[in-house]
Predict the structure.
Amino acid sequence: MDPRIDHRRYMKTLRLDEAELRARRAFFELTDEDLARLAALRPFAERVTDAIVDDFYKLILSQPETKKFFPDEAAVRRVKKTQREYFLGLFVGRCDLAYVEDRLRVGAAHDRIGLQPKWYLGAYRKYMQLICDHLFAELKDAGNVRDAFESIEKLVYFDAALAVDVYVAAKIEALERHQAAIRELSTPVIRVHDRVLLLPLIGAIDSHRAEQIMDSVLLKVSEAQARCIIIDIAGVPVVDTKVADSLVKTTAAVRLLGAEVILTGITAQVARTIVQLGVDISTMHTQSSLSEGIELALTFVGKSIQAAKRSRSPNRSGEAKSGKRA
Amino acid sequence: MKGTIPILRLGGTLLATIPTELRDRVAQDFQDDILTALEERGGARGVVIDISGVETVDTYVARVLADTGRMAKLMGARTVLVGMRPEVAATLVRMGYSMEGVLTALNAAEGLALLRRRAR
């Protein structure tokens, strides 16, 4: 992922459009008056930027946990420069989508380097304190300081919310990627022969995975135009009525496509469960072992396994050969 | 012909392709047309209904299709539904509708082959 476009993706994920921007600004009570006040404070900001940024990094570099993000002097110089831009950005007097996009870049950058929200929320606290100190020194009048501080506070909280949102969105994206990977791994459909598929199921099956299995089986059967799919459940530790029911449903759905399911790896306990479910098993193909399942599957595509003639191929004990349809 | 879905005849088999969407009214007309065709063009032993273009099927339409198969059987012809999409199959089964007794095949060619095997 190109880091320069990362934050733009989050504009979409967080649905940051004009309506969302209006809603956010309304909730933070960030008015045009606030923005005008911030713009008027620009000269003040320019005077105090260097002092604030220096003090700010004193805190960050004093803690080992946060210091490790800035390994050398060059890195510190770089972030100080970025920080000055960020600080002056507060006093531009606008809060539109371009501003939001710029702020998302901050959140995205923090997420990329693995800086957790606790650190930047803590850092924002320091920021506010430093700004407050300088405001008092500059403006003297308590009323003016209060007004100015309030406007700054609104925008800073607005920014912090965006940073946290990006952090959360990035984590959700990572989770979704992992879920997709698990989904892929949990239903490994293998082609064992022309138009014969095999799905070896391993591990517990909950209702969520059962649904996935059905969708994935149907898709693969349709894609491969398979005549049959063997579902081996020998690796499934517990086959309760729910799992059995989902397997029966998958079987029915595959039949609707015009293909067959062969269930293999049926233990005594599974046989008991399926019968107790009261399912019509007259149309189900089941075998206790996978090898028998494969033999049955081959008959669906008009093939059979035959013993090789010893004299002709001494090294091969068995091989699928074309034969008469069984 | 009452409906809009053309029904072709290939030897002893009727072949119809259902368009993308099958509305209740169209499904009913289609059923009538198939049965009329079996009545008028005697000697048809099989019906192949290609539903590979159909993206959604509700239980009503599914029932009309399954009923058509059963009615055709009473008139001496076996019906094969071919090319059902995975998502349609999943939806039907989740709605508890597995169309028992209906023959299915992956595509029209397989459907015709299935009818030939059955006829033997």
